[in-house]
């Protein structure tokens, strides 16, 4: 139970970090202005995940964690893929995840 709870918390932290990075210009999805679509999708996913975590903060059932993780882990994997290997033509994948200025 504790391992699943920690994975859930780590997923929330990664979602929060990934939703901040496009706003400060350190993460791009390679589509220029089209990155807004991914950023907005990521922001709404993060808000929904935080809202669900707020609703279920008192109950600690294994089924709750597993069902939420079954929904949000594929979304997280998709976002990480689009930010790395699946980048668009404007900022093609060059081996770096972040754009340091």
From TrEMBL:
Keywords: Membrane, Transmembrane, Transmembrane helix. The chain crosses the membrane at residues 6-29, 36-56, 62-81. It comes from the Bacteria. This is Uncharacterized protein.
